[in-house]
From TrEMBL, chain A:
ABC transmembrane type-1 domain mapped to chain residues: 65-273, 359-550
Database matches in Pfam families: BPD_transp_1 (PF00528)
This protein's name: Iron ABC transporter permease
Residue intervals passing through the bilayer: 17-38, 65-93, 100-121, 149-172, 193-218, 255-277, 306-331, 358-383, 403-421, 427-448, 480-500, 506-525, 532-555
UniProt KW GTP-binding keyword: no
Keywords linked to the UniProt accession: Cell inner membrane, Cell membrane, Membrane, Transmembrane, Transmembrane helix, Transport
From TrEMBL, chain B:
Entry keyword Metal-binding: no
Signal sequence, renumbered to the chain: 1-20
Protein name (database record): ABC transporter substrate-binding protein
Keywords: Signal
A Pfam family of this chain: SBP_bac_6
CDD domains: PBP2_Fbp_like_2 (cd13547)
Alphabetized InterPro entries for the sequence: Ferric-bd (IPR026045)
Source organism, top-level taxon: Bacteria
Keyword Metal-binding: no
Amino acid sequence: MIVSGDRNPISRSSDRLIPLLLVPVALISLGPILRLLAEGFGLGDGATLAHATEVLGRESTRIALWHSLVTAGAGTLISILIGSAFAFVVALTDIRAKSALVFCLMIPMMIPPQITALAWMQVTGPSSVLLRTLGLAPPLGSPQPLHSAGGIALLLGIQHASIIFLTLRAGLRMIPADLVEAARISAARGWRVWAQIVLPLSLPSLAAGAAMTFVTALGNFGIPAMLGIPARYSTLPTLIYQRLAAMGPSVLSEVAILALVIGSVAILGVLAARLMLRRRAFGLVGLSGQPLSLSLGASRPFVETLLWGFIALILVLPLMALVATSLIPAYGVPLSFDTLTVKAWHEVLFRQPVTRRAYLNSLFLATSAALILMVVALPLAWLISRRPNWATRAVDTLVDLPYALPGVVLAIACILSFMRIPFTQITLYGTLAIILLAYLSRFLVVMLRPVQASVSQLDPAMEEAAASAGARIGRRLHTIVLPLAAPAAAAGAILVFLTAVNELTVSALLWAAGTETLGVVIFNLEDSGETVMASALAGSIVALVILLMGVVQFASSRLPKGTVPWQG
Amino acid sequence: MSRLALALPLALVLPFAATAGTLKLYTSQPNADAQKTVDAFQAANPDVTVDWVRDGTTQLMARLAAEMEAGAPAPDVLLIADTVTLEGLAQEGKLAAYSSPEAQAYDPALYSKDGHYYSTKLITTGIVYNTAADDIPTSWADLAKPEYKGLVAMPSPLYSGAALIHLAALTDDAELGWAYYEGLAANEARADGGNGGVFNAVAAGEKPYGVLVDYMALRAKAEGSPVDFVFPEEGVTWVTEPVAIMKDAANPADAQKFVDFVLSEDGQNLVSEMGYIPARTGVASPEGFPARDELKLIRFDAAKALADTDANKSKFAEVFGVK
């Protein structure tokens, strides 16, 4: 007979929670990835390197890998230029309307990449409705300049600039003003303060941001798919998509190897980012004081004009071009008051069942993912914070993996895992369930981090008091943790929702009859020559995204610090 | 809570399982046409709901193979670009034999003897050009001339069923043959995506000339796009967008109704209205199109094309340097 040895109610009841929560989370984060490894190396039916050697030896693999590295690398450089310029000015100076500026800089990242590519294709080249309408279109037969490595890198750079901006700004805010004061007292001025104090201290943040940007750019599918496929310029994600789309599941083990190649490069990038962030933490922890605020003086209006002009260039111009294209009757017709028509909008929003279905599917997937993850993230964050042991620490790290890896990798892993669920005859292939599972795995970390930030600020004394009054764990979570962490959970849910509504990379490989997502439909419309309809659908999604971002922005004053990512 | 947890996966799967009265259609028609076809069919058969999916023929075939392998619900009816693909499916025993009462109004060359598939329209492949272009080509051979270097876009046979048949017919032609494709490759003709990409490039003026299916060019021209279409001197190649019923169709009764409707006089008038040359004898071509018997069709052998499919694809990939 066992007499209960541990009479502490907190630890006893939470121990029961551990397997209930940690096992499924670990399974859905790691399971598909392990399945992918097994497929790539033929584990189960005789381990072999034959696949790997064959696929890696192919010229197409090497070319695609090289293209991926080149475009992601060059894109990262462009992101660094844009993101750091904005970060230094916004974090360190006294320019006005900072939050509006930051909000606008965040929009490109929240807009689906294939829409970014579609919009930019309407700005340049002989196809530009905008240029044709203005009579400035390049002559017949000129190439679309964006259908090139440079075009892909440029758009990747614009799309991901906000990652650099956010990490760098967070780093800059940790630089105490005392250091600058000290330098000033020693007669250092202007550029010298910047070059000798601010820049060296911000380098680890910049490097960490660069590594994350590189990983994100590496996994981007929408931009290289829209710009690269027509130019026969393949990257690893588009190569995987094309192989799978043309050949079907017979090439799964081959694309599994390709997925592992891109996954390995991505993991190197993630490790580099972690290393840099740790350096930053060691260097500046413990220092306190006011953040820097440099006065721009008379040059302030000039700097402001420059930044807003740049926003107009990267945001307003392509969106205007997109809307212009959506309003013409047929592709190639210039826009004028005589030709203007909302036919494409009507067809897309009210006639086509596929777009209606895609809206329903995407909204359903995004809402379900947000709600389910909210239910999981609250107790999980609480457990990680209150019960630090090897298991919770492992899960804390694991949930990063599916988000950090390129979406293509996760999609292939999910097809392999759920095409036939082990020990059953059930298949999830071709259902919404497989996309939902992939989303749960991919976006858990998006939900978890803000909730963690909020839970770690809670005082355990309240829960201990409740426990000693006899409240069990469910009740304590419900009455104490939930209300206090709810705002962060709501912000996290909206972020998950926004990310999931925009998603293409995962669903491009997982969709089937009836389970199209918005990203898939835009891609297919453009692909079948229906650019005008694609533009109209894209326009409606951009409006939805900006609206939702506006809701978060509007509610941000009531949220705890650190929950809305674009507000430090 | 646990009951909810059990019900959730079911709710996710069920809406896409086949239900009586719902017909699942895979088609390679453009979205708007697919919608018109479905609307007209549903108006004639109010008790049937049609769920349809559009993609390129090659992609749809890959998807179908994946779904059959996974045991996921597959479509009831196919309405896709070419007879070669359907002949392949019929030989694998994937198609149901159905003798439609409408067949008597069709040229026997336009449907399979066993009723595995029926042609619904004639889609020819010719040359599209941007009206701002200097030269107007009149023949296939023109596209390989030095004046057209770097100015031609064409759909890839690795992607489009119509383009694969176009390739099979032209490379089989005594005058043109593989030498013509080698000439196009040397002339830097761009062959990457499907017909959609070619149309975009030509309408935009990025490539002034393109190899394209007739309806995309002629319909866009009617809506004001700056493009026009040439039926080349050597003749045009053609596909017939056949309709077929899957052998394992969950809803064969409605599938038969769908086939009959598409082949019926009403169905064929709709085809003509949408801007395609109808397959049914006695239904007039749409405005701007030549009548069916005025077209010069390049001969092609479907059985041979099917047997040569892989060889043709890999030879094309080699000639055009696709890896």
